[in-house]
């Protein structure tokens, strides 16, 4: 590990197609910063696994998530249970000459760790601002200021980026040589997430 990479741990070591992996902090940060949604996996109080989507933002080497104080996820994560957080972008459908070699071009990040409740009022407001401005850059300063009641009704959690790994696939399909003359299209159908024109309320 260096100041520019995350350590390769038993949990972040890639066993399938490790050449697609990256522990580079700049790569991990870029994938996270483009994401609007992450999925958080954890074991609920009854021992059953749960995976839930949530908005995220990054402040330095910390991820921020938030929710209602009565949320099951917030209550459980606030207890410091182990979690696994993932982010995925699908950049293209990779269409090969055979079904076996079909794939997707993607960029993903997996983070392992535990969450902590942000108790300090100033830090909590900074976290809520980061989440708001991540969704709509620069919007926080134009909004009606949050009230103490709203802040109290919200749980903000932070997750340190300590165990994190990116995995990326890009490029065309990899067909078997004997399939190259098969008369069907092979290539990539690019996909992207785009913002459309805003619709007034």
Compile the SSE list and pairings.
Blueprint: E1 21-22, H1 25-34, E2 37-43, E3 49-55, E4 57-59, E5 62-68, H2 72-78, E6 83-95, E7 103-113, E8 115-117, H3 121-135, H4 148-152, E9 154-160, E10 163-169, E11 187-190
Antiparallel strand pairs: 1-10, 2-3, 2-6, 4-5, 5-9, 6-7, 6-11, 7-10, 8-9
Pfam families: Pyridox_ox_2
Protein name: Pyridoxamine 5'-phosphate oxidase family protein
Organism: Zavarzinia aquatilis
Describe the structure.
By secondary structure, the chain is α+β, with helices and mostly antiparallel strands. It has a single domain (18-172, 183-190), classed as Pnp Oxidase, Chain A. 18% of the residues lie in helices and 35% in strands. The chain has four helices and eleven strands; from the N terminus they run βαββββαβββααβββ. The strands form two sheets. Strands 1, 2, 3, 6, 7, 10 and 11 form a seven-stranded antiparallel beta sheet that branches. The protein has a four-stranded antiparallel beta sheet with strand order 4-5-9-8, with helices on both faces. The relative contact order is 0.22. The model has no long low-confidence stretch (mean pLDDT 96).
